[in-house]
Amino acid sequence: MTSSYVTVGSGDHHVLALHGWFGSARGWGSLPDYLDGSGHTYVFMDLRGYGGRRQDAGDFTMEEAAADAIALADDLGWDQFSLIGHSMSGQAIQHVLLAEPGRVRRLVALNPVPATGVPFDEDGWALFSGAAASRDNRFAIINFTTGGRLPAAFVDHVVQHSLDHSTTEAFGAYLESWAKTDFAERVKGNPAAVKVIVGEHDPALGAPVMEQTWMQFYPAAELEVMPNAGHYPMFETPAALAASIEDFLDRD
User: Fold this and answer.
1) Which residues does 122 contact at the CB level (< 8 Å), separation at least 6?
2) Domain 5-249: what homologous superfamily?
């Protein structure tokens, strides 16, 4: 397996960050600039088919992404680590937890897809499934999930990043995995320390969805709604997001 990642900091608390559908290891906006590198070592990894791993073959599933995350932690020599998963990788970090419960310290689930997957109506599925081949579909998705309130230049920036840093094959295949996989029965009652962070302007994966899924499945979970953010708080409110993440991580 090839590895492609960005490292921020050199502290003792190791944190592995897995990006969302439109992201990459270098698609976290300004968030890395505001993280405490003295107390933490953050590794932002590319999933297969993304960033420096665009040419890597695979099944492009969340289970595979989790296995790759564990392999990277092994390569880094990390016995224990925390996880951040944005959007679709909210599922991937749960698969890591299921596979290696004794190694995972804390989970930060950022605008995360739940273990139930995501139900789509016919129009919604047409929009999302067509996004691999359509820039317009990608634009519409980003605009919708940030509340239709941000400038077109911002939406274009996120869309262009996704086009430049992912393959059409991987982008399309991951959708099938995170949208249509339900492993909720495997995580219900899990005692892990979990913080779920959502933007107040995210109409797709906002607080109501989290209350019905993550907060039901993880008894120790807590939920924070980030003001003035939608689905991409790493771009919209990066300093506040960094503070929220590290407030939780530093409770150990």
Assistant:
1) none
2) Alpha/Beta hydrolase fold, catalytic domain (3.40.50.1820)
Do 95 and 68 contact (CB within 8 A), yes or no?
A: no
List b or e across 127-141, with b for residues whose CB sees 16 or more CB atoms inside 10 angstroms: bbbebbeeeebbbbb
CB atoms within 10 A of CB 204: 17
Round to whole Å and give the CA distance between 246 and 167: 32
Q: What pairing do the DSSP bridges indicate for beta strands 222-226 and 104-110? A: unpaired
Q: How far apart are CA 228 and CA 98, in angstroms?
A: 33
| Per-residue pLDDT tens digits for 32-53 | 999 999 999 999 999 999 999 9
Determine phi and psi for 14, rounding to 5 degrees.
-85, 135
